[in-house]
Every structure is written in structure tokens, then in C-alpha cells.
Amino acid sequence: MSKAGVSVRSESVEAVTEVKRKRKRVEIVKITVDGPDGQPVEVDAKKCTKCGEVKVLDEFGNKKGGTLNKNSVCLLCDRYQSRIRASNNPDKKRERDRKWRENNRLRVRETQRKWRERNVSRKRKTDRKYRENNRDKVRESQRKYWEANKDVARRRIREWYLNNKERTRINSHRRFAMKRSLPQSWCRRSESRMLKKFSDSCPLTLAKNDLHQDHFIPLAWGHGGSYLGNLVPLYCVLNDSKQDRHPFEWFDANKDRFNLSESAWNEMTAILASQNGLTPSELRAFVDWCYANKRTVAQTKRDNERYGYKKPSLEIWREATGLQFPIRVDFGTSTQLSAIGEYSTASKRTDCASNPDSAKEAVM
Q1: Mean pLDDT across the stretch 172-177?
Q2: Rounded to an integer, what distance in angstroms lies between the CA atom of residue 342 and that of residue 335?
Q3: Taking the CA atoms of the chain, what radius of gyration do you get in angstroms?
Q4: Which of 19, 46, 59, 286 sits most deeply, having the most CB atoms within 10 A of its CB?
Q5: Phi, psi (deg, nearest 5) at residue 71
């Protein structure tokens, strides 16, 4: 090796040695702090080489080979430096985190599980937002999972249906109305209010078991929807018999066959009329109009596009007949509707109060 090379190496070694000489050794000192019982206690402490503050040893991270196996930089300064390094080298930080997660999968899963348990509502909100912003990606992921795990997916779906019968029933009513582009605001609160109004029983037979939730105005007509005021609990035999027939005509044709009471029918229709803000005679006129003006799904969609939202049949009937009364049903649309409530016939318009059959004559 040349003399020049030896000279350069010796100069670099001397420079490193000089830096080591200048590096100060942090000494342990005693400071007084308040103990757990409030009494002053002397504890070991040392000076942070970054911020220069004297702090107790608990505020320093562990480091093998350091003074008392503690780092020379306090935790606060160390975190600040780590954030700066991560911001200056994002790719390096991302790769390091990925490798750490791969080597600590069980630990990561356990941490995520505990976080989800502590932040249930926050997790649900973030998941919903992600699904809304990544619909195509979510569908593709679900499709691939279904193809690879058909048996497991079917078993999970079946178990979920068995364990969530109430939610399944409510979702079914909403889905049926949604498929026909009809209003759907049916929910648990609506169902509980309906059952409470009819004493948890069929209003015609007083049966409390084997109840179905019947759409008084059938969805197959292209009118009505799934909302409080169009759903009523019926005994399963009656619901199977009624299907999509005209409710008033069905009752007249089957009241003797099933031994149904006329007063019970009138009481049920009065409740439905009140929930829709109508009189019983107006409810009959509204049902007759829906039956005479059935719509296909395509026609319903065209009407919704023309109005700009899922306009309820009750509003369309009101415009067609020229009747003026406030809409008191929550159809789940974008219109400004008041809350569901009983409609007082005493406060109704005077023309229908004096002649309750006027609405029926207007549409017959």
C-alpha cells in the first residue's frame, strides 16, 4: 500500500477517535418525585441527549449496552425522530412494517381483535364507508371467495338466517319492495309498532302463532310498499289464501269460509286507514284505484325517474283525485314527510268529513 493510503487511513481513525473522546457519558443522578402515596421519593434519572431534560429512567427505552440498559434518548424524542425518518423514507418504512407483520401474524391478529372489541361502532362505520367507495372490488372479492368456499359460505348463510330470523324477515320485506322500485322504510321499530297496535296477534282470528306479515296492498300491483300502514299481521292460512287479491273483495268472498268477523275486519281497516291518514271509506277508494291502475316494474321505474324519487302511490292517488290532505306516512323517500302518527278524523278537511264517500266516488 502506498504511503498516501496509509496517511489517509490513519487520519480517518484519528477523527473517529476524536469524536468518541468528545462524546459525553450520561451519568445517573438522583431526583425527587411524588410517589404513589403522594410522598416525595428519590429515583434514578438521567439527561436526555436530545432535549436536554433530566427524566426518570422509566421515560427512556431499553437498549442493550446503554447506561443501566437504557437508551440515551428519551421515548418522546425517539418517537419524534422515528416519525421524521418515516416521513423521509416512506418506502423503507412500508417495507419494514410489511416484513414485521409477516413475522408476527398472530400478534397482529390479536391486536386487531382487541381493537375491534373496543371500537365496534367505529369499525362498522369505516367498513361501511369502504364498501361504498369500493363496490366493484368488494363484489369481486366476494365472488372469488364464494367460488372457492361454496360449502362454507352456504353453511354460514344458513346459520345466520337461523340466528337472525327477525332481521331476515325485515330485510326480505325491504328487498321485495326494492325489487319493484317501491317505497320501503320497514324496520324493527315499524314491526314492533305494528305488532303492538294489533296486540301481537292476527286481527281477524286473534291467533298469536304462525303469523305472516301481509302487504295489504300487494306489491304485485306496482303500488304500496313495505312501510307501516301497508303491513298487517295475518294468520298464515289467511295470508296464503289472500296472496295478491283485492283485500276487500277477498274478505267478502272468504269471510264465511274462514268464519271471519265483519267487525274485526272493520277495526283492522280503520287502523290501517288511520296510519295512512285516511278514513276507512277513503282507504277503500285508494285500494280500488291501485287495483284499477296496476303498474309493471318498468312502469314504476319510469314514474320514479319522472318524479325524481320513489313517489308513493298515496301521493299519486291524491294528485289524481284532487284531494287535499297531508301525507303522514314515512315512506323512506327523499320527500319531506312528517313522522308516522295517528290521523285524527276530527281535524280532517270538512268536505270529506261531511261526505266520506266523496273520495270513493271521485275515483270509481
Answers
A1: 92
A2: 20
A3: 37
A4: 286
A5: -70, 155
Q: What DSSP line would sit under 312-346, residue for residue?
A: -HHHHHHHHHT---------SSSS--PPP-PPPGG
Cβ neighbours of residue 303 closer than 8 Å, sequence gap 6 or more: 295, 311, 316
The grid coordinates listed for 2 are: 502506498
SS (H, E, C) 48-102: CCCCCCEEEHHHEEECCCCHHHEEEEEHHHHHHHHHHHHHHCHHHHHHHHHHHHH
Q: Can you give the pLDDT at residue 235?
A: 95
How confident is the model over 196-204, as a mean pLDDT?
Answer: 93
Residue 13: per-residue pLDDT: 47
Per-residue pLDDT band at 166 (split at 50, 70, 90):
confident
Percent of the chain topping pLDDT 90? 54
| pLDDT at position 52 over 90 | no
Q: Which three cell numbers stand for residue 138?
A: 368488494
- What is the rounded distance in angstroms from the CA atom of residue 339 to the CA atom of residue 277? 12
Q: How many helices (H) and strands (E) does the chain have?
A: 17, 7
Handedness of CA 30, 36, 40, 41 (dihedral sign): negative
Asked whether the predicted pLDDT for residue 64 surpasses 90, the reply is no
What DSSP element (H or E) covers 34?
strand 29-34
**pLDDT of amino acid 326:** 65
pLDDT at site 67: 76
Contacts of 82 (CB under 8 A, 6+ apart): none
CA quadruple 239, 242, 245, 251: dihedral sign: negative
- Res. 258: pLDDT tops 50: yes
- 3-7, 228-232, 255-259: segment of lowest average pLDDT: 3-7
Would you call 166 helix, strand, or coil by DSSP?
helix
d(CA 254, CA 243): 13
CA 111 to chain centre: 24
CA–chain centroid gap for 271, Å, is: 31
Burial class (CB in 10 A: 0-12, 13-18, 19+), 205: middle
